[in-house]
Amino acid sequence: MLNSNVLVLNRSYLPIHVTSVRRAFSLIYQGTALAVNGRYETFDFDAWSRVEVDGEAGVGTPDGAIRVPRVIVLQGYDRVPRRHVRYSRLNIFARDSFTCQYCGGRPHRSKLNLDHVIPRSLGGRTTWENVVCSCIECNRRKGGRTPTQARLRLQRRPVKPSWTPMLTHLGTKIRYEEWRPFLHIAAPEQGVAAGG
Hints:
- The chain has six helices and nine strands.
- The chain has helices spanning 21-30, 45-49, 89-95, 136-142, 165-172, 180-186, and strands spanning 5-9, 15-20, 33-36, 42-43, 58-61, 64-67, 71-74, 112-116, 131-135.
- The strands form three sheets. Strands 2-1-7-3-4 form a five-stranded mixed β-sheet.
- A hairpin with a 5-residue loop joins strand 1 and strand 2.
- It is elongated, with a radius of gyration of 21 Å.
């Protein structure tokens, strides 16, 4: 339970990070953050420890169970999340929704890899616009050829995202109902899908 996820908001209520319950409790206890409930009310540690667990996840203490916060807001951090999107394997997977961009399949993550649309052997570069998520089977089939040469068709043209892929990907897999309104704020242009 202490390692499950908590959404972290800046002072403007924009999501900036996901942390563990353990760390969230520490931040609330230190006064660095406040817990946020489903009605957007905020609580310091003393007030939060008096909130009824009511069938929700809780952590046992000698004084009784304390409800697990699913969203916290930082008191002193008002910077907006960085708009620069770091190029990484995980961010490419997230941009492409963990879906093979050739066949549209969604195999287990261990069966996904990255593919250069224009192979490096043909002058293709390692950029957002030339690398896509691919299943191992399609990657083998394509080999060192272009998609046209391999008779494969891209599901969509790869582009550099203007949003943070992992945060938006979290929106498509909303783990806790309390996260939903804040993830809508984070990526309105992406149309956060319902999840559970």
